[in-house]
Write a structure and sequence with these properties.
The protein is an all-alpha fold. The chain has one domain. About 70% of the residues lie in helices and about 0% in strands. The radius of gyration is 18 Å and the shape is elongated. The termini are far apart.
């Protein structure tokens, strides 16, 4: 989180909003928001229901947009195979 949000005050606000989300309070407690959690993928859900919490919405979408890659691991394994 420190890399994505360098500002401490901003991180504190986001952490408080994460608690709101976790316990389904405020906008996250709306019946539609709860029901759509099951039906929509996370990115779509945040685009629809995250407008009231723009800081948390931006953070969530940034996290969900991160790509995973195994290329670093694959390079390491290739090096090991050459040694063996």
């Amino acid at each position: 989180m420190r890399r994505l949000v360098p500002d401490l005050a901003e991180r504190r606000k986001i952490n408080l909003l994460i608690v709101e989300f976790h316990f389904a309070r405020g906008i996250f407690g709306m019946e539609d928001a709860k029901e759509c959690r099951k039906a929509l993928n996370p990115g779509e859900w945040w685009k629809i229901f995250g407008d009231a919490t723009l800081k948390l919405k931006r953070f969530a979408i940034r996290i969900l947009s991160l790509t995973c890659s195994s290329s670093g691991s694959e390079r390491n394994w290739r090096s090991v195979e050459m040694v063996i």
